[in-house]
Design goal:
Layout: H1 6-14, E1 17-22, H2 25-28, H3 47-50, H4 53-58, H5 60-76, H6 81-92, E2 95-100, H7 106-110, E3 115-117, E4 120-127, E5 133-134, H8 136-142, E6 155-159, H9 168-180, E7 183-187, H10 199-205, E8 209-214, E9 226-229, H11 232-253
Parallel strand pairs: 1-2, 1-7, 2-3, 7-8, 8-9
Antiparallel strand pairs: 4-5, 4-6
Helix pairs in contact: 6-11, 9-10
The structure holds ligand BJW and zinc ion.
């Protein structure tokens, strides 16, 4: 069981507003490969090379092969104890939200309700001509470069590629959550892709206690108030357990009506 500082537990026990900011690392233990890092399976395909409009225009077949493969991988995996610990956090804190860079939908599948998806969702697709949505079943059934059932236009996955703007609503909510957080957890992200990577420091500049969870240091580590080194699927359940014990002990020391 990892050891947590008294300061972290006290800070979280008193916190009203807590935000979890997640990246590919939280889904690694479900079997979804990360993008960067030594064991990142997509390291064969650098996201900078495939996840952009130029690559799609040049070779839509290749980019669609990558997404069709990932859609199948993601459909077959399950949320892990890291995702589930964040569902428990939502029940524990008065205000809690997940801001995710992940497109895998695993936070919602785990049961998290307040989720802001900054980079889209791989379960959705839309026509580049008329905007009509297309289901995953439809695009996988067609294979190759899928076409819109209404206008024949090329369909693309509803994800955010390099050089594209983030969805405005999700971004605005994320900024507001970061600015108002008492505690901000940055979990399983290399913190190199902007503007998402600016959120932990925005939160800290607005007074949040900044906690990073990652097996490896990142460019954020030196700025974090706490670096919890290890896999999210181990650290987050242990952290939740420590918080629940603290609340139970406080409740016993100060019973209602005391
Ligand atoms: C574990 C673990 C375990 C492992 N437990 N942890 C120069 C400076 C600044 C910015 C730019 C710049 N040049 C260009 C830009 C902008 C660009 C950018 O940031 N580039 C940088 C790479 C330099 N950003 C953009 O283009 C964004 N849009 C934008 O800026 O719009 C304005 C604009 C408009 C017009 C023109 C120019 C600008 C859009 C970014 C979109 C990113 N999209 C992707 C793909 C999504 C679709 C898909 O999946 O196919 O999003 S890229 C990819 O990276 C994906 C991820 O969400 C994102 C972040 O990756 P993440 O989640 O951090 O994963 P990894 O793999 O990097 O890290 C995993 C971590 O987990 C590691 O640290 C491990 O140690 C750890 N780990 N096991 C816990 N068990
Ligand atoms: Zn169409």
């Amino acid at each position: 069981m990892p050891d947590f500082s008294d300061r972290l537990i006290a800070c979280m026990a008193q916190a009203n507003r807590v935000t979890a900011f997640t990246g590919a690392g939280i889904s690694a233990e479900s079997g979804v490969p990360t993008f960067r890092g030594t064991d990142g399976l997509w390291s064969k395909f650098r996201p900078e090379e495939l996840a952009n409009m130029d690559a799609f225009m040049r070779n839509p077949q290749l980019v669609w092969e990558w997404y069709a493969h990932r859609k199948r991988v993601i459909a077959d995996v399950q949320p892990n104890p890291g995702h589930i610990a964040l569902v428990r956090m939502e029940e524990f804190f008065t205000h809690f939200g997940v801001i995710t860079q992940n497109i895998d939908n695993l936070h919602r599948r785990a049961g998290s309700r307040t989720v802001y998806e900054l980079h889209g969702n791989i379960e959705r697709n839309y026509c580049m001509e008329c905007g009509k949505p297309a289901t995953n079943e439809e695009v996988l059934r067609q294979g190759g470069v899928p076409r819109c059932g209404s206008c024949g236009g090329v369909v693309r996955p509803d994800v955010v590629w390099f050089g594209e703007m983030l969805p405005e609503d999700e971004w605005d909510h994320a900024v507001r959550a970061a600015e108002s957080s008492d505690v901000f957890l940055s979990i399983g992200t290399s913190a190199v892709v902007y503007p998402a990577a600016s959120l932990p420091l925005l939160a800290k500049d607005h007074g949040a206690y900044l906690v990073e969870v990652n097996p490896e240091p990142t460019p954020l580590t030196d700025r974090a108030d706490e670096f919890l080194q290890g896999p999210a699927g181990v650290i987050l359940p242990a952290l939740m357990h420590a918080l629940e014990e603290t609340r139970a002990a406080d409740g016993a020391a100060h019973p209602p009506g005391d």
